[in-house]
Amino acid sequence: MALKEACGLLGIFSSSFDKTIAKTVYYGLFALQHRGQESAGIAVSDTNSIRHHKGLGLVSEVFDEDELEKLCGKIAIGHVRYSTTGSNVFSNAQPLVIRYHSGELAVAHNGNLVNALEIRERLEKNGLMFHTTTDSEVIAALIARSQTNLIDSIFSCVKQIHGAYSLLLMSKDQLIAVRDPHGFRPLCLGSYNGSYVVASESAAFNTIGATFIRDLKPGEILLIDDSGLKSYELPKSKRSLCVFEFVYFARPDSTIDGVSVYLARYRAGAILAEQHPAEADLVVAVPDSGSVAAIGFSDQSKIPLGMGLIKNRYIGRTFIEPSERMRNLGVRLKLSPLKELIDGKRVVLVDDSIVRGTTMGQIVKMLRDCGAKEIHVRISSPPITHSCYFGIDTSTKRELIASRFDAESIRQFIGADSLGYLNLEGLIEATGLTEKELCLACFNGDYPVMTPMEGKKYLFEKR
Ligand code: AMP
Question: Does the reported pTM lie above 0.90?
Answer without folding.
Answer: yes
